[in-house]
Design a protein that fits this description.
Blueprint: E1 3-7, E2 10-12, E3 18-25, E4 33-39, E5 46-51, E6 57-59, E7 67-72, E8 77-82, E9 91-98, E10 101-102, E11 105-106, E12 112-113, E13 117-121
Parallel strand pairs: 2-13
Antiparallel strand pairs: 1-3, 3-8, 4-5, 4-9, 5-6, 7-8, 9-12, 9-13, 10-11
């Protein structure tokens, strides 16, 4: 079975950095897209960063220029490097894999979500 396990969340001051990791098991990266989403209380789920099977990336407008998504095909890990963190970045961050991802979530019925990792940015 496909399993995603996120790690790296925590509390950080504004302007700080965190790197989230998503360990993938049960599938290969070939032919799939990986992504990071986030959701804060009272807000809709928001697409943060995406990387497809070719390594092409895209980002949500609120994080463009600050976050970088990458993947290690040997270790089967997808990373989200988060820089210049702001209080508005506070949310639960979820990793996802699917044949197709949208700005709002999974694009098919066969995708998988991770359990989430909390990121809190405050002074």
């Amino acid at each position: 079975e496909v399993q995603l396990v996120e790690s790296g969340g925590g509390s950080v001051q504004p302007g700080g950095s965190l790197r989230l990791s998503c360990a993938v098991s049960g599938l290969t990266y070939t032919g799939v897209s990986m992504g990071w989403f986030r959701q804060a209380p009272g807000k809709e789920r928001e697409g943060v960063a995406f990387i497809d099977s070719d390594g092409d990336t895209s980002y949500g407008p609120s994080v463009q220029g600050r976050f970088v998504i990458s993947k290690d095909n040997v270790k089967n890990i997808v990373y989200l490097q988060m820089n210049d963190l702001e209080p508005e970045d506070t949310a639960m961050y979820y990793c996802a894999v699917d044949g197709y991802l949208t700005p709002y979530g999974l694009g098919t019925d066969t995708g998988t979500w991770g359990q989430g990792t909390q990121v809190t940015v405050s002074s």
